[in-house]
Amino acid sequence: MSDLIMTVDDWRSWGNANDPAMLIAGPCSAESPEQLLDVANHFTSLGIGIMRAGVWKPRTRPNSFEGKGIEALKWLAELKNQFQIKIATEVASPAHVEQALSHGIDVLWLGARTTVNPFTVQEIANSLRGTSVPVLVKNPINPDLGLWQGAIERIYNVGVTKLAAVHRGFSSYQKSKFRNSPTWQIAIELKSTFPSLPLICDPSHIAGQRSMILEVSQKALDLGYDGLMIETHPDPDRALSDADQQIPLQEFGDLLSQLRFTRKHSNDALFISQLEQLREKIDHIDQELIEVLSLRKQLIEKIGEYKKENNVTVFQLERWNEILQSRTAWGEAKGLSDQYIQSIYRSVHDESIRIQTEIMNKETEKKKE
Ligand code: PEP
Ligand code: MN
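That is the input. Now the predicted structure with phosphoenolpyruvate docked in place:
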């Protein structure tokens, strides 16, 4: 899809080199100096090197908590005086970039609602020119690989080489067990396009509930992701944003100890599990199958109209026998069993008859009027 050859820095050069994977954790939002102090204390004992905390919160509906803004940047700057910890926060405009950098924020990220907008991404990219701050780019809210790649390219093109992608899942109208459907194959395709780009999973925004964070994190690690960004809070039930998905700080060490970190080999850039790749191909083929079935249905409808106009019966025994014979032979030539092809065609034919009968009846009703 993209012919850009991207060479970004190894995350260990700007993350915590000793971590088995790049770990970023912390509250969804910076809420108070006490909350941040609690998190930083805890992370120091766990050895977490990068703490996340949102200060400008992109909320779906107005009148929700929108972050503490500059006030929170000051708390974070103060925290860095007391702890050996790097701080990451979300930026959604050039003004945010400027304010975050002037308060010593170490890592910036573009949120899902920013990545969707190439104008904003470009403005942010322009404001990053000449800086050396690491930047993480979350996937856009919609499952659009091109948009995600495009945002990453815009940031890379201004000279940012401390760069990583964050997979936080994709919004969907359909209800599912996830808050944001992971659709893993999109992230996997991103990684195959930009093999040197670190890929981090944000299980919190994918899962939307704390009981699933372990499972989603493990899946990402098993797929060879380079890191995790996990929301944790001293008292999640009282969190001002994303209360359901934040892990209580006290349980976070336990969660980490349950994770199996699998070390990747250096030649593993295309790391992707074979199974996921094959499944992705199956998904594409199935989409084509459905497409072809829908084209077939359109023809069936035309035939139905034609038969009605010419007063011909829906079911034509000769034609059916001919279909069954020829398709069985075509299938055989491709190594598909008679039984398999015949059972598929029985069901395809049944549906044709149903559709055509419906057309006949509809037309008859019209005539009656
Ligand atoms: C967040 O990280 O708290 C956040 C708002 O994330 P996203 O942009 O993935 O929704
Ligand atoms: Mn959040």
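Residues 22 and 227 are 4 Å apart (CA to CA).
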